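## Example pair
The file below holds two records. Each record gives the amino-acid sequence first, followed by its structure token line.
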Amino acid sequence: SRLPSQPSSDIASDTSVPQVADSGDAQATTLTHAHVGSKVLVVDDIALNRLLITRILEGHGFLVQEADSGEAAIESATEWRPDLICMDLRMPGMGGMEAALRLRNMGADALILALTATALLAEQDDDGELPIFDGVLAKPFLIKPFLALVTRLMNNKCNESASTVMNSASSSRG
């Protein structure tokens, strides 16, 4: 079965949203078991896009909140403190680039994944990154590459946190 799609959707469906972690897909299982309960803020001005991303993430055990603008993203991220923000870049009013920059300047430590049209990828640096973002995914995107990127970002954050804790414990022992 496929996710519902409409011509205006920026998300292409290549698979159904798994309801069970042990589907045989090692990446999906790793994501679900390692990150159940992690908080994700989904920011997009198109309701259908927010709904699809929310269903995908909730199907893998994430807690999800939604925002429909850059302004709403800043407010929600400040109050809720998500682990990851999936941020559309092109929105009316404050776009995702400005919202992400403001969040970084405010000291937000959430991972921020830019969801963008291919035309905006020209703003990447030499390494193919948008410097204020932890990852970039061009729309439309397929579910499996989206989940693989979320997995990689979340695993990197967990590894960095564990390393920081270990380094703190080592230095406190003298």
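Second record, same layout:
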Amino acid sequence: VCIYDRVFRHAVLCHIKTAVMKRFLPILSFVVISFAVGYLSSMIQEPSMQEWYPSLVKSSLNPPGIVFAIVWPVLYLLMGISAGIIWNMRSIYTWLTIFLFFVQLGLNLLWSVTFFGMQAPVVALVVLTLLFVAVLMYMAIAYMQRHLVAYLNIPYLLWLLFALYLNGFVVLYN
């Protein structure tokens, strides 16, 4: 009985560890993917941050650079967690939701390319509008699967609204 009990406990612990890893690994993977896009965006932005961006007329509500450095990692973390949760659910909407996740992530990167890389705020405003719509669609589909996933993206959606205002201000006054 003692030997069987030890083997059984070991098997149960191994099963639990495997189950936890199967759930954790996708979340970690999506977080890493999100941060990779954030890193690429920052590399695209860097040259313009030295000369072009400081020369723009910006809103008085434009936050200092440190705010962006704090907010974006939090948003990328929440994005990755939300996509990982969806991946783990395996519902009929999983593939659509993950597709929308990658669409919004691609648009997120494209905004940096258009605004900073191409220095084209008007085009960037169009991309940002599409990004906002993509995130809304992602949240709507995710909400049907698990409310928490949609709620995790509320800060991102609010930040995008603020970004739309800031980008629009740059378009109007430059």
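Notes on the second record: The chain is about 90% helix and 0% strand. The first helix runs from residue 2 to 50.
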